[in-house]
Design brief:
By secondary structure, this protein is of the alpha/beta class. The chain is built from three helices and four strands.
Length: about 100
């Protein structure tokens, strides 16, 4: 299904980004993939359009933070309850749709 879509938005929490990176997807799929990662704990990030959000109080994902990540006020287990995360995700999806 991923090869048939013009673009795909994935939401990846915690180790979801690590799982995605290890799928070894074809370049065609990767070029159409957009990932909103929250609390990501991944050894390496896949080469896709990605926005990573980390909680300022998320000590679990702290070692995997990058300088260009977005930071919100939450911890590892409450990203999906955060209005700020929802707003960032909504903005990301709108940006992806605007490119179409």
């Amino acid at each position: 299904m991923l090869t048939q879509a013009d673009r795909t938005v994935l939401l990846a929490g915690s180790c979801g980004l690590e799982l995605l990176a290890n799928l070894r997807l074809p370049e065609l799929v990767l070029s159409r993939l957009h990932v909103f990662a929250y609390g990501a704990v991944a050894r390496r990030r896949p080469q896709v359009d990605i926005v990573a959000v980390h909680g300022r109080r998320d000590w679990i994902a702290r070692p995997w933070r990058k300088h260009d990540d977005l930071f919100v006020d939450c911890h590892h287990m409450n990203y999906l309850a955060s209005p700020e995360v929802l707003a960032r995700c909504t903005d990301f999806i709108a940006r992806v749709n605007a490119r179409a």
